[in-house]
Structure formats: C-alpha cells, structure tokens
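S1.2 Input.
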Amino acid sequence: MSDTTKKIIRKLQGEVVSDAMEKTIVVRVDRVKVHPKYKKRFTVSDKYKAHDERNLYKVGDKVEITTSRPRSKTKRWRVIYSENQVRQESESVIDTGTSDAEKSDDK
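S1.3 Output.
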C-alpha cells in the first residue's frame, strides 16, 4: 500500500444568508430529501460558515464553497471565486477611483 492518502474535496452551492462578520459569510445549502415511507419530497437546509477573504459577497448572492483547512472553531469552508466575480470586483475598484470633481470637469 502507498502512504499517500486521497484528499476528499467537497463542493456545495448555496445562498449567502449573513455577511455581518469580517471575512466570513454564512451560506445556506438546500437539498431535497424523500421520506422513506410516504415518498414525499421535502427541503432540508444546512448552514455553513465560509471564509470570504475579499468580503465580496453580500446577502442573497449565490456562491460555491469547498472544504478547506480549519480557520476557526466553526469555519471549515472557503468561497470559490469565479473569473466573472474577480473581473467585476476589479472594475468596481477602477470605477470608484475617479472623484466627482473630475467627472464634472469633463462636462
């Protein structure tokens, strides 16, 4: 047997329900279960605390999270940033760099 262990990487998709903490968001992940006897479908929700290094996400945003090393007592997940979100973040930084006085001089 080899000494290498296989690393299990889980990815989940959910909605941000809280962004009140610094560099941390709470993500609600919904899944559908089926009752074993009655075969009725119902939704089960779980909440995960995820590390958001850039403080990019706000309440209501759809995010994808993955497992990571433990960052605190309850935080074991981190946000996966897509290229679209990184582009939007960099464009917003560029747009906010101009002041109102400069904009009025252009007119």
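S1.4 Remarks. The first helix runs from residue 83 to 95.
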